Amino acid sequence: MIIRMSRAPHHPTRDQIELPLLLDCLSDPIRLAIVYSLAKQEQPAEMRCGDFNALSGKSNLAYHFARLREAGLIQTRIAGTTRFMRLRRDDLELRFPGLLDSIIAAAARDAERLQLPDCEIVTEG
């Protein structure tokens, strides 16, 4: 008997997203930079894990991506060996109206002071 495990990561439902966990997650500068970078992309925006390599090492980034996913801030999609992430804008807006936009606006206003890195999408040619 062969048991196949799903590679799809678990995402909380919209109703399972909790404000304290979400705010705690965004208190980390790297996670805030990831969310800020995703928010700056045209919608619907997906970025690859490798697009954030300037922020930290791979294992540290994997930890941050997992925390963001578990908090309900991002959706992760796996295609082959690549993981794509996008903000869960619609779910967050329905659960906490205006919160994400307020956080992104504050991060944009204070990006220099907060030293938020400007992550550019790296396109493969």
Spell out the blueprint of helices and strands.
Blueprint lengths: L18 H8 L2 H12 L6 E2 L9 H14 L2 E6 L2 E6 L1 H7 L3 H11 L1 H4 L11
Antiparallel strand pairs: 1-3, 2-3
What does this structure look like?
This protein has a three-stranded antiparallel beta sheet with strand order 1-3-2. The protein is built from six helices and three strands; from the N terminus they run ααβαββααα. Helices cover 45% and strands 11% of the residues. With 125 residues, the protein is α+β, with helices and mostly antiparallel strands. The radius of gyration is 15 Å and the shape is globular. It has a single domain, classed as Arc Repressor Mutant, subunit A.
Mean pLDDT: 83
CATH homologous superfamily placement: Winged helix-like DNA-binding domain superfamily/Winged helix DNA-binding domain
What name does the CATH topology carry? Answer: Arc Repressor Mutant, subunit A
| Name given to the CATH architecture | Orthogonal Bundle
Supply the helix-strand structural class: alpha+beta
Unreliable parts: 119-125
Biggest sheet character: 3 strands, antiparallel
Question: How big a fraction of the residues is strand?
Answer: 5-15%
Q: Strand-and-helix sequence, N→C?
A: HHEHEEHHH
Strand order of the largest sheet: 1-3-2
